[in-house]
Design goal:
Layout (H helix, E strand, L loop, with lengths): L6 E9 L6 H4 L12 H6 L3 H4 L21 E4 L11 H9 L3 E4 L4 H9 L3 E4 L2 H13 L4 E5 L4 E4 L5 E3 L4 H9 L3 H7 L1 H11 L3
Parallel strand pairs: 1-2, 2-3, 3-4
Antiparallel strand pairs: 1-5, 5-6, 6-7
């Protein structure tokens, strides 16, 4: 979903597991879908963790715990490893997460998130562990993600860190643009460049 980013303040869903791969995010059997419907993929985010083998809810999994909610997922180190399936980013966006915070992302998955209007925020391992502790102490803990200033703040402690983001992707997120929108927005500049190159 194309949504402009500015400052997001939200409670968080903690997933303190390392090496969460894309098959765990969205199992391979859902890759055969012929739809891009957000609800379909969102409903199947972490499918094999959210549901038991008989299809009933796994009450022990964090997405099924009413204590936790919000549009920020806080995940352990090396999030999105494994295959490069874009469906994993579709599922995260389809569920309603707008930000994923981790100390390390697999590169392809990180770019897939950016392309699907989900902001991956890389923080230090120490800051990440502090977030997990704050959320465990109080599930209503809020985190502020300030994209213009590239800053993330743990509202429970006041501690903040800066994060890196590609300038082009930052522009696109802040303006609600995908790659095609960006080209259309700059079509006059592109035409002018081509005319100059052709000597027109």
């Amino acid at each position: 979903m194309k949504q402009k980013f500015n400052i997001i303040t939200s409670t968080c869903v903690p997933l303190p597991l390392e090496n969460v791969d894309t098959d765990q995010i969205i199992p391979a059997r859902f890759l055969k879908a012929t739809t891009r419907e957000e609800k379909y993929f969102g409903d199947n985010l972490f499918r094999d963790w959210r549901y038991n083998a008989d299809g009933t809810l796994n009450k022990d999994f964090v997405l099924n715990n009413p204590l936790y909610g919000g549009c920020i997922l806080v995940a352990g180190k090396n999030f999105g490893s494994g295959s490069s399936r874009e469906h994993a980013a579709w599922a995260i966006a389809g569920y309603g997460f707008r930000v994923v915070i981790s100390s390390f992302f697999a590169d392809i998955h990180k770019n897939n998130e950016l392309n699907n209007f989900v902001l991956p925020v890389v923080v230090s391992e120490d800051f990440l562990q502090e977030l997990f502790r704050s959320i465990a102490t109080d599930p209503k803990t809020e985190v502020e993600v300030n994209l213009p200033e590239q800053k993330v703040t743990n509202k429970a402690t006041g501690r903040c860190e800066t994060f890196e983001i590609n300038a082009y992707k930052k522009h696109c997120l802040m303006n609600g643009l995908d790659d095609i929108d960006f080209l259309v927005e700059n079509k006059d500049k592109i035409a002018e460049f081509e005319n100059r190159r052709a000597g027109l």
